[in-house]
Amino acid sequence: MSKGKPSQSIAPDLSRVHVVLVNTSHPGNIGATARALKNMGIPNLRLVDPRDYPSDVAMWRAVSATDVLERAKVFPTLVEAVADCSMVIGASARSRRMPWPMLSPRQCARHVLEEIQRATAEDSGQIALVFGREDTGLTNDELQQCHYHVQIPANEDYSSLNLAAAVMVVCYEVRVAMLEHAGETRLGADAPMYDPASEDEYWDVPKADGHQMELFYEHLEKALVAMDFHDPENPRLLMPRMRRLFGRIRPDSMEINILRGVLTYVEEHVRRANAGDLPDADNTGNKTPKDTK
Ligand code: SAH
């Protein structure tokens, strides 16, 4: 691995990220955490003095992430669990007496990504995301072993999340930051997300061009006149408003073809009605030439 400054070109390697659960009571939370980690592509779990582990309950809750549990490392203390880490971030619902650098989950994800790049470029350092006990969280001593704290901005009336849910929120942000860094604006190959900024690339049919739009407005105006809806002698703002409406929508060329097909159909209908070639609206079967209406 080459040494040097962190560079944009280095793909974020989430295997440098370790989620550390401190003194967890409920093995179900350990299993649910393993599942959250696998969902988010973070492979490493460290357990500090878990109260009930190994456990079948943890395995059941991990579902298809039992491999994360099988690889999980158990440590007697937090100091030992983060000994190889160059960045340690502790998750806490409460602000402590002494102010500490506090990050949102999104800021936390950016710090994690920058540290992954630095650590990868220099080939040294792991990153720990530390989560506390279900009942009492992290002790002050444990929080002081962290470079940063991360707080999920939850409801002030009840800001303490379930442990595995808190892990999921923080790891989700790390994953999104990683995908954005990798230029994955589609956020997942099999479920492309709509992004107005790259709509042209996303859409299946090209946008109608200026020429097509002008032909459409011409056609629209002609059809509206034929329907007696629009009076060119007294146009008001009808056509500018139509231009503004369709300009906002930016139809694609197939949509414009469909609209023009509708207009042609309406024109034909009006022509036949005017020629007395259609049954009248109350279904009497009588022809209704325009001049008799
Ligand atoms: N009652 C404890 C919270 C325990 S929840 C307390 O008040 O500290 C278990 C763990 O989930 C916490 O130690 C913390 O790591 C994480 N957690 C829960 N809610 C969180 C939040 N809003 N922000 C950051 N971490 C949170």
What's the gist of this structure?
By secondary structure, the chain is of the alpha/beta class.
What does this structure look like?
By secondary structure, the chain is α/β, with parallel strands linked by helices. It folds into two domains: 14-181, Alpha/beta knot; 210-292, Helicase, Ruva Protein, domain 3 (Orthogonal Bundle), CATH 1.10.8. It is built from eleven helices and seven strands. The chain has helices spanning 27-40, 56-62, 66-71, 78-81, 105-122, 140-143, 163-181, 199-202, 210-226, 238-249, 253-274; strands at 17-22, 44-48, 73-75, 85-91, 102-103, 126-131, 148-150. A seven-stranded parallel β-sheet has the order 3-2-1-6-4-7-5. α5 crosses α7. It is elongated and about 95 Å long. The termini are far apart. The protein binds S-adenosyl-L-homocysteine. S-adenosyl-L-homocysteine binds at residues 91-94, 131-132, 134, 136-138, 150-152, 154, 159-161, 163, 166.
CATH superfamily of the largest domain: SPOUT methyltransferase, trefoil knot domain
Q: Which small compounds were modeled alongside the protein?
A: S-adenosyl-L-homocysteine
Q: Give the end-to-end Cα distance, rounded to a whole number of Å.
A: 86 Å
How many strands, what sense, and barrel or not for the largest sheet?
7 strands, parallel
**Total of domains:** 2
Count of DSSP E strands?
7
What is the CATH architecture assignment of the largest domain? 3-Layer(aba) Sandwich
Approximate helicity band: 40-55%
Q: If strands are numbered along the chain, what order do they take across the biggest sheet?
A: 3-2-1-6-4-7-5
Estimate the global geometry from the Cα principal axes: elongated
The whole-angstrom Rg is: 31 Å
Uncertain stretches of 5 or more adjacent residues: 1-9, 288-293
